[in-house]
Amino acid sequence: MTGRDESAHTRAGTPGGTPVAVVGIGCRFPGANGLAQFWRLLSDGGDATTDVPASRYDIDAYHDPRPGTPNRIVSRRGGFLDQIDQFDAGYFGVAPREAERMDPQQRLLLETAAEALADAGLTRDRLSTTRTGVYVGGMSSAYGQLLSDASVLDLHAATGGARSFLAGRVSFAFDLRGPSMAVDCACSSSLAALHLAYQSVRNGETQLALAGGVNLVIAPEETIPFSAARMLAPDGRCKFGSAHGDGFVRSEGVAVLVLKPLDRAEADGDAVHAVIWGSAVGNDGQSGGYLLTPSQPGQEETLRAAYADAGVPAALVDYVEAHGTGTPLGDPIEVDALREAFAQLYRDWGLPVVPGRTGLGSVKANIGHLEAAAGVAGVVKVLLSMRHRLMPGLVGLRTPNPMIDLTGSPFRLQAETQPWEPAEGVPARAGVSSFGMGGSNVHVVVAEAERQ
């Protein structure tokens, strides 16, 4: 959108070190294998949620439309990937017996990491000469439990079912020698992994880093507690910003980003998808009053810290990809936190608020809640939106939630798809939020690369 303050643009910079480029992307989301299909889904306003396929579990045996019914699931729907049982073990040097015992999350990560590295133009030989880190968000251990229930208790089952091997498996497959860690802070896991990867590259700890997340919904036992707590939407759709928002829907997905210092990427002639300018991670502590209750003060602190780290004034932010689950409690708290944090940020820079200049949306309206992979899914959406200069509208938003107050703020709910029009000569900029149920809040600030 227009209305940007040019003096603010000239003052923006990052105090913490060199900005970091995203030079490779690999992704698989519900209804979309790869970037082209994902953008088609977003730009067409598609909803990729479906009924739970029989290949996961028999939903008829667990479904009950009455909210809160013990040991039952209120929704029949979710967002699912295709062919998660397919894996070219030989390509990655994995023996067939070991592959059978590998959590499909590990297999998907290997495949998606290979796609991201290929997108970045990186070969194994080139990687062997660099210090490359791997940071992966994951929270589901359902496959390991299935192996245990089937009394498959050998060493391959232990390494195949443990979340700690999500990152290590990638590092081993590509002979990567930098830091390698699995990150689990619930639904903010993948954005926290991106934060760690970004900091590692920016600070010079690593020359390259792979960052991402993965989530699969393969057993009802992980879904039943959410349904019992009335967190799931009965109609199986995330309705961020809507008066009809009544919960989230569980979904699957995987994405991996390749990070590199921007100056090095430019010197090497890399194609740069976008630039990360700053990030922050915080926790609610006891400010929410209960472990599972989101906290406005906690989210505000993280937002302010992210923009301080980036050195980017709020007046230059065109769009915010919200955590945006579509819950009646979480949505108003998140928007209130954004409103108050941005009001302070505008005051800090001495800039007037331009009402409605910053779009506010959530990819969960298209593909559901990817939980551990949700944050990186939001980043991929934003990078594609910048590339195509288009802000996709929120699917199904007809009546805004009356509890969401945008008065006096720079935000508007992105109800309709519209062009992304930053001021001439100024890169598009956005923020991405992701919040975990344990109170871990993450926000990342990104911008498009300079257009040639």
What is the helix fraction of residues, given as a range? 25-40%
Mean pLDDT: 94
**Nearest-angstrom radius of gyration?**
21 Å
Q: Uncertain spans, ≥5 residues at pLDDT below 50? A: 1-15
Q: Structural class of the secondary structure composition?
A: alpha/beta
Compute the separation of the termini in Å: 21 Å
From the spread of the alpha carbons, the general shape counts as: globular
Summarize the biggest pleated sheet: 12 strands, mixed
Find the count of extended strands (DSSP E, 2+ residues).
16
Summed up, the helix count is 15
Percent range for β-strand residues: 15-25%
Which secondary structure elements does this structure contain, and how are they paired or packed?
Blueprint: H1 6-11, E1 20-29, E2 32-33, H2 35-43, E3 50-51, E4 77-78, H3 96-100, H4 104-119, H5 124-127, E5 132-137, H6 142-149, H7 155-161, H8 165-174, E6 180-183, H9 189-202, E7 208-215, H10 224-228, E8 253-261, H11 262-267, E9 274-283, H12 296-310, E10 319-321, H13 330-348, E11 358-361, H14 364-367, H15 374-388, E12 390-391, E13 411-413, E14 418-419, E15 429-435, E16 440-447
Parallel strand pairs: 5-6, 5-7, 10-11, 10-15, 11-13
Antiparallel strand pairs: 1-2, 1-8, 1-9, 3-4, 7-8, 9-16, 12-14, 15-16
Can you walk through the features of this model?
The structure is a single chain. The protein has 15 helices and 16 strands. The chain has helices at residues 6-11, 35-43, 96-100, 104-119, 124-127, 142-149, 155-161, 165-174, 189-202, 224-228, 262-267, 296-310, 330-348, 364-367, 374-388, and strands at 20-29, 32-33, 50-51, 77-78, 132-137, 180-183, 208-215, 253-261, 274-283, 319-321, 358-361, 390-391, 411-413, 418-419, 429-435, 440-447. The strands form three sheets. Strands 1, 2, 5, 6, 7, 8, 9, 10, 11, 13, 15 and 16 form a twelve-stranded mixed sheet that branches.
